[in-house]
Specification:
By secondary structure, this protein is an alpha/beta fold. It folds into three domains: 44 residues, 434 Repressor (Amino-terminal Domain); 131 residues, Response regulator (Rossmann fold); 130 residues, Rossmann fold (3-Layer(aba) Sandwich). 43% of the residues lie in helices and 17% in strands. It contains twelve helices and twelve strands. The protein has a six-stranded parallel β-sheet with strand order 2-1-3-4-5-11, with helices on both faces. The chain has a six-stranded mixed β-sheet with strand order 7-6-8-9-10-12, sandwiched between helices. The longest helix is centred in the first third of the chain and has 16 residues. The radius of gyration is 26 Å and the shape is elongated. It comes from Budvicia aquatica. This is Ribose operon repressor. Keywords: DNA-binding, Repressor, Transcription, Transcription regulation. GO terms for molecular function: DNA-binding transcription factor activity; transcription cis-regulatory region binding.
Amino acid sequence: MATMKDVARLAGVSTSTVSHVINNNRFVSQPVKDKILSAVAELNYSPSAVARSLKAKQTRTIGMLLTSSNNPFYAEVVRGVEQSCYERGYSLILCNTEGNTERMGTSLETLLQRRVDGLILMCNDRNPLSEALFLQYPELPIVMMDWAPFNGACDTIQDNSLLGGQCATEYLIGRGYRRIACITGPQDNTQARRRLSGYQKAMTDAGLTLEDSYQIFSNFEFSGGQKAMEQLLQLPEPPDAIFTCNDAMAVGVYLVLSRAGLTPGKDIAVIGYDDIELASFMSPPLTTIHQPTDALGKLAIDTLLERLNAQMTEPRTLVLTPRLVERESVGIM
C-alpha cells in the first residue's frame, strides 16, 4: 500500500508539500500540485482516515444509541439521521441497547472509545444513563431525543406530547365520541405519561368522565396495542373510540378489531400518534398525530454540529409541535 512518502518520492517533492495538497491547507503552485496529483493517481494512494482524524482531532463520525424496538418510528428517525450525516460528510455508528441497561453502558463506552465527534441518544426511560460516564467526556456534544430529563449538559429534542395527546382527544370529542379510551406506553416513560395527560386534560375540559378502565399503560409495541384492545373489548361497555399513543400500537388494535368483525372508522374510531409511513397504508388509512421523522433526524444532526462547532454555549431544549393528519379511521358519531 502506497504511503505519503512514496507519493513525495515519485513527485520529487517533500512529504509536507504532499500533505498541503491533500489537505488543501496551504498554497501550492499548480504545476507542483499537478505532479503530486498525478503521483497519487499512479500509486492509487488513499490517505489514512485514522491518521487524518488523529491530526485534526476529529473523526467525522457520529454515534447514535437506540433502544431496542420493533416500532417503525425509530427506524424512520434513524433514516433521517443517517441521511443528514451523509449529506454533511459524516459517518454514523449505530448501537442498539436491546432494552438492556448493561448493554447500554457497554455500547456507550464503545462509541466513546471510537472517538466519535458527538452522540445522539434515543432510548426510553427504562434504561437510565450512567451519568458518571459522561463526566469523563465533558466536552463531548450530546443530543438527546425522546428521553426523560437528564442532569448532564446536553441539548434535548422533545415532542410536545401533552399538546399532541390533547389534540388527538379533542378531535375525537369534536367528531361526537364520548366513550374514549387511551392506550399509552409504559408508566415510567415520560412521553407516555405526557400523552396520557393530554388525553385527560381534553376529557376533563369537555366535562367527560375519566374511566380508569379506559386508561391502559402498555409497551409502545404492536403487541401492546393488541393486548390492550383485547382488554377493552371485554369491558361491559367497551369504548367507541381509541386513542393509541403511537401508531405501532394502533396496528395491534386494528388486528383485534378485524378478528372481532369490527371496522375502524365505522364501528369504532381509532387515532394514532407518530404518522409513520405505514399509517397511510393501513386499511382504512390511520388518522394520527404527525411527527416529522426525517426533519427530526436533520434537526438532531444540525444541533449536534452547531455544538461541535462551538456555535452554542448553553444547553437547549427544542420542542417540536405535533399536528393532526386526518384520514379514514375516525368517523362521525
